[in-house]
Amino acid sequence: MQAEIISIGTELLLGRIVNSNAKYIAAKLADIGIEVRYQTTIGDNPAHIQEALKIASQRNDLIIMSGGLGPTLDDMTKPAVAEFLKTNLILDDQQLDRIKQKFVEQNRQFVETNIRQAQYLAGGQKLLNHHGLALGDFYQNEAGTDVVLLPGPPSEMEPMMDELVPILIDSYHLKHQLISTVMKFYGISESQLMSELDDLVSESSRVSIASYGKGNEIWLRLTIFDDGQDDAQQIIDQVQQTIAQRFPSYYFSDNVQESLAAIVVELLKSKHKTITAAESLTAGMFQSTIASVPGASQIFTGGFVTYSNQVKEQLLGIPAEIINQNGVVSAETAIYMADNSSKIMHSNIGVSFTGVAGPDSLEGNPAGTVWLGLAGFGETITKKIQFATTESRKSIREKSVMSALQMIWLQLK
Amino acid sequence: MQAEIISIGTELLLGRIVNSNAKYIAAKLADIGIEVRYQTTIGDNPAHIQEALKIASQRNDLIIMSGGLGPTLDDMTKPAVAEFLKTNLILDDQQLDRIKQKFVEQNRQFVETNIRQAQYLAGGQKLLNHHGLALGDFYQNEAGTDVVLLPGPPSEMEPMMDELVPILIDSYHLKHQLISTVMKFYGISESQLMSELDDLVSESSRVSIASYGKGNEIWLRLTIFDDGQDDAQQIIDQVQQTIAQRFPSYYFSDNVQESLAAIVVELLKSKHKTITAAESLTAGMFQSTIASVPGASQIFTGGFVTYSNQVKEQLLGIPAEIINQNGVVSAETAIYMADNSSKIMHSNIGVSFTGVAGPDSLEGNPAGTVWLGLAGFGETITKKIQFATTESRKSIREKSVMSALQMIWLQLK
């Protein structure tokens, strides 16, 4: 079974944005054994859309298009495809109601062109859009190549593609599948991780192991093609287990959706422990990350952003001498911040962040110098991290939050 | 002048990597007025390379290919292109010496297949590779479409493309360039923005106006092709000014790098005003956003994360009756939070966030109900926002931060 991916968008042709949709769709198709031999990108132009469809339908069983389903006048994919397939567009009343309802909820006036988003190809199967307004479409073409229409924004396209996968498996009776699993790591470099997996990469040729950076995390993807000959799931599980045992401090999840913060919040809940923080460097980013997890209020009631030295004294009662004698970026200040925040908030655990986000240095400490404090597990723990001076302000702050989560996770688990 | 970009690589077709080369090449071509109407991705397969060349040469003046120039057996671009163009490959002795020299330097044994990297198309102009071993090529085809060969690894391709740009300008006598500008908006939907620009989209056909969502912002890109006939820069400036005047509350910057937070921090600095916050819903995200701007310490010393009702009383001194009588998600609570935080922190401005991030409702308020408070501009201002119940927890919190920044910005400017 062969498929072509057609991406539609002037922004792609102008090189304004990278085509992450083609990558996402291609990976999902590879997973279920559909071969992609061509990817084509064109603009919002009906003639070009139809020309691309003509070429693609001559060399493929399936065409997956993304983009151009929106409400504006330059969104032309649906009518162009309908004309090519010699079918009509049908207005889905239910979807139109949903769209109108959205406008009401957001107190905005309905704009007539939004009707286009509620249309789908007559004879096709509409695909619901849970993160946007435009319907997608799966058109099984008895006379030729099947066509799928997906929206352009990745936040809408990706979940719709995820829902399409089982529909494709079902429609095409796909039996042999790629089984894959993800392993998420924090605190180890990609090259170190891979070098410690050298033996597995060569030995177990059935399981392919690929690494990539995902934000501040390193993800491994283990993949095996299930050809029905043996228990592929068991083989991949075994490799996963071997890797997990090698990196107990770095490997934290095999669930794509699950963040390290969510794991920490769940552990805190199950152990009935509360947490607070005093944040200088990160200025609220840690607490905001904790509160990003639904139900965080069970373990978190609030905390402090103490950016200046004077506020560290005022809100946390840290003696001025401590900061003067040791410097604000020091183990001693981190200890006081963690201890005092947990005492004031009556929390079991207190975390603190003090450091130099840059670009300038502070008290002779270069940008990237960070002290973390962690109260609540016996004697208060500190950890110094020296990020590279070339690391960005954003990255230093985000990695500090991740490092603190990792410290807490290692203590709790 | 029209060009097609052909990317070659199995990794692209499998969705293992994103096609950043197509974006880079497209942007460079757009800059010098070469229009890209098609981008095609294929695998390392001679038949597919030749098929793609055939299609592309029928519809373009120039084809830029990247990938498949390496030393391994699956790198097939050069011989496939040579066959298509009915020309030969010539071995460049100087390049071969360079390659062999590299192997000596790295203490590695020369591998015979590396000879391929020193080949170029007879009749073509070789392009030097300063970051790798494979030669590129610019083949001007008197009988048809010109072809450029670039290596696949971005670290090699990008500098070679940079060097190619002046060669293309010279060869094609390109004088006219694309001028473009970006306009950034917050607080208005894409469809509403575009519908209020309908007249400009049709009237001033010289300036093309494209909209797209960028995170929680809406960006417009205005583009004009400078054909030397008139003052294109002046025309685009005029359209930009017209749009800016239509949306004084939503349009905040024409600088891609500049965030709304950075604008607010700069305004605070220039007006010598300090800011603090009491955050419930957002739990530190606002303060963290302010502190993401270098130099924020001049206008921000710290603040509060008051997640639970009890902590709102403890840290901010909000009377329990206020919360009990009005509810925690209310104008009254927002006012007390903003007022008291600015008083305690001796800040000119105090911002507060209280609301329901979801997924569950709270005190009868559905997820997405948000009250913002803003003290420091005369009587304390409040703003209620009702996000759609389908909006994610993450999005509700992020948009609340953006909305508060917008409120402050409108007061300051």
TrEMBL record, chains A, B:
Family: Belongs to the CinA family.
Top-level taxon: Bacteria
Classification via SMART domains: MoCF_biosynth
Gene3D superfamilies the UniProt entry points to: 3.30.70.2860, CinA-like (3.90.950.20), MoaB/Mog-like domain (3.40.980.10)
Species in which this protein is naturally found: Paucilactobacillus nenjiangensis
GN (gene name): cinA
Start and end residues of each MoaB/Mog domain: 4-171
Lineage of origin: Bacteria, Bacillati, Bacillota, Bacilli, Lactobacillales
Full protein name: Putative competence-damage inducible protein
InterPro entries: CinA, CinA-like_C, CinA_C, CinA_KH, Competence-induced_CinA, MoaB/Mog-like_dom_sf, MoaB/Mog_dom
Pfam families xrefs: CinA, CinA_KH, MoCF_biosynth
